[in-house]
Amino acid sequence: MEPPIKVLIVDDHAVVRSGLRLLLVREDGLEPVGEAGSGREAIFEARSVKPDVILMDVVMPEGSGLDFIQPLLKEHPEARILVLSMQDDPRYVREAFAAGASGYVLKEAADVEVVQAIREVAHGGRYVHPELGARLIAADAAAARRAEEDPLSDREREVLRLLALGHTNQEIAKQLYISVRTAETHRAHIMQKLQLSSRAELVRYAIAHGLLEE
Q1: Share of the chain above pLDDT 90, in %
Q2: Does residue 197 carry a pLDDT above 90?
Q3: What confidence score (pLDDT) does residue 206 get?
Q4: Of 48, 59, 75, 96, which has the maximum CB count within 10 A?
Q5: Element counts in the chain: helices (H) and strands (E)
């Protein structure tokens, strides 16, 4: 028989922690072993209870719970972090996974989904609320389309506009409060991304894309 999955609940609302604890004690194979009201408390609590899964809220008094994911994993690399949040913006999902989280579930999710997510990440899997996963895919696809249509960053577009207007690297550096070397680097990246080989081609591109009208 497998040992129970030990869960540390991290949320700044006591009523939420109580509700989650009641949910977990009703489930076979899950054991709530501790609670914390902030990310800082979670670090200390995890040292004593050694959780398998840390249920982590995002919005807390001492800052975003996402900021505590890496410190927690640094001390407890064997733990898995499941973000349980009200935030349904795909950006938060992306940031959570980038920080090291193994899953992301909305607080509005049904009890059965929270339990499923805990079991999934505890056994080495990854979990995202289905609706959020669909939104994340759509957002990434839109970003890819934008990058394909216009591969330049906002800063590179500004440098391109100034170059097309005839400004030197020194003048661009002064106007944008950057070093001359940075201006030169931006120019090189622009030429490479757009596969241009001369200033004349650069000017034609700027005109064709309406950059001189900005």
Answers
A1: 45
A2: no
A3: 86
A4: 96
A5: 10, 6
